[in-house]
Automatic annotation (TrEMBL):
Residues 1-18 have a biased composition (Low complexity). It comes from Ictidomys tridecemlineatus. It comes from the Eukaryota. CDD domains: bHLH_TS_TWIST1. Acts as a transcriptional regulator. Inhibits myogenesis by sequestrating E proteins, inhibiting trans-activation by MEF2, and inhibiting DNA-binding by MYOD1 through physical interaction. This interaction probably involves the basic domains of both proteins. Also represses expression of pro-inflammatory cytokines such as TNFA and IL1B. Regulates cranial suture patterning and fusion. Activates transcription as a heterodimer with E proteins. Regulates gene expression differentially, depending on dimer composition. This is Twist-related protein 1. The keyword Zinc does not apply. The lineage of its organism: Eukaryota, Metazoa, Chordata, Craniata, Vertebrata. The gene is TWIST1. Residues 1-40 are annotated as: Disordered. InterPro entries: bHLH_dom, E-box_TF_Regulators, HLH_DNA-bd_sf, TWIST1_bHLH. Residues 41-92 form the BHLH domain. PANTHER family: BASIC HELIX-LOOP-HELIX TRANSCRIPTION FACTOR, TWIST, TWIST-RELATED PROTEIN 1. GO terms for cellular component: nucleus.
Length: 135
């Protein structure tokens, strides 16, 4: 089971504590305090794992951005990418429910993708216009 990082007992405010104050909380199972070198090694390894996790997450967002039809002016943040992906999934669901795809278009994936991308862009812009007009 993955541990929720946000529930970790160490908070950013804990960084201001000196090493001597931290050592009682950071003992190994055997009860002996870890050496400074061991703590440094653990920190380096944790940093490597975090960089790998961040890189993996960024690669996943890049892949998602390639799938979602966007406008040339779009430079989407991660949250914007997720929100747009959710809207695109909803749009595709609506298309499937309305049975507007004919069998010829469905047989040519490139044409289908281009038509869906265009339709989604129009749908998206209509939504943006109606949202701004209602404010």
């Amino acid at each position: 089971m993955m541990q929720d990082v946000s529930s970790s007992p160490v908070s950013p405010a804990d960084d201001s504590l000196s090493n001597s104050e931290e050592e009682p909380d950071r003992q190994q199972g055997g009860g002996s305090p870890q050496s400074y070198e061991e703590l440094q090694t653990q920190r380096v390894m944790a940093n490597v794992r975090e960089r790998q996790r961040t890189q993996s997450l960024n690669e996943a967002f890049a892949a998602l951005r390639k799938i979602i039809p966007t406008l040339p002016s779009d430079k989407l943040s991660k949250i914007q990418t997720l929100k747009l992906a959710a809207r695109y999934i909803d749009f595709l669901y609506q298309v499937l429910q309305s049975d507007e795809l004919d069998s010829k278009m469905a047989s040519c994936s490139y044409v289908a993708h281009e038509r869906l991308s265009y339709a989604f862009s129009v749908w998206r812009m209509e939504g943006a216009w109606s949202m701004s007009a209602s404010h």
